[in-house]
Specification:
single chain; 393 residues; alpha+beta; Serine Threonine Protein Phosphatase 5, Tetratricopeptide repeat; Jelly Rolls; 7-stranded antiparallel sheet; 4-stranded antiparallel sheet; 11 strands; elongated
Length: 393
Amino acid sequence: MSANEALSSLKDGADRALRSADPRAARELFQRAIDLAPARVDLWMGLAASQRALGDLVGALAAAEGALAQEPRFFPALLMKGTLLEALGERRQAAMVYGVAAKLAPPPAALAEPTRRALAHAAEVHDRYAADLAAELRTAADLGGLGPASARRADAFVEALAGRRRIYQQEPVQFHFPGMTAVEFYEREAFPWLEALEAHTEAIREELLTVWSEGSPGLTPYVAYAPGAPLDQWAELNNSLRWSAYHFLKDGERDEAHCAACPRTLDAIAVIDQPHVPGRSPAAMFSILRPRTRIPPHTGIANTRLVLHLPLVVPEGCGFRVGGETRAWREGEAWVFDDTIEHEAWNDSDKPRAILICDVWSPALSDEEREMIVRVTTAMDRFNGGVVGSSDL
């Protein structure tokens, strides 16, 4: 009998012994098979199952470790290791292993029902562990002894360290300037003109309500890709008024009719430190999101500029997420965020939501860098014979 035939015979016999509820014989046969083929993960898993059936949890854990020594990211072995650690009373170690297993798990539809149940239990154990760890770390951080900005950063630090908050990076669609810090929502102190803008909220809202009516010819789809363009997540909203815009400044050009209709809005946004790049910016608009509409996760075009929101009409049930932080708009309270970090918005209410949106220079750039960016971007567009790539916010 050849070595392969001997190995196959041992494996078949071990499997039959397990099915026949004879784990002692199965253990012996799996061990003999491993002696012939120590790199076979399935043999180590069979040995672990045999040991577990015999009540030898320590031996079963050693066999699961044997499988992981061959394939460290093998999901079944990780899930079994977590289960065995939990049964041995090592709940925190089990929770950490469960967390790794959950990240590597196949889609639930691809799993047998017992494995789905085990994975759901694993997720519950890991979630409890993460919550307990975050609470412990939050106490150590002493958030109450920190200023508001530092407390928010410390809380995000704690949540990420506990595995409860994903770490997001800048992912600009086209323009990436090196060395820029990824900040989801900026502190207000970075933009001393914010209060002056907010002081005009009522006047801006009055002009919005004047020009905003159902079917208004001034509203255009916010997402408007040409035929043949790859739509990806925008298929549902492309050329749809479910998310619409009333532009004052678009791609650096004024819509004179819209500007004339909203003169107080144009006066108000004059305080904003906006980029001026021919064919691309500044940009300013009313953005209207209809009821029961969601804007899918996406990222913006350039990390050299940020985006400002001034909420004007916000019913209950609206929300906005940038990276790992979710906020609710409050009418008249502006914020500035980095749209090259993944973000999304939703209006789950029965009424429309409306905000003012403008682009803003990143305060991290020097005047010299801003001038250089304008020169480089203009040269690129000139070389290409025009703007290539969306400059939408």
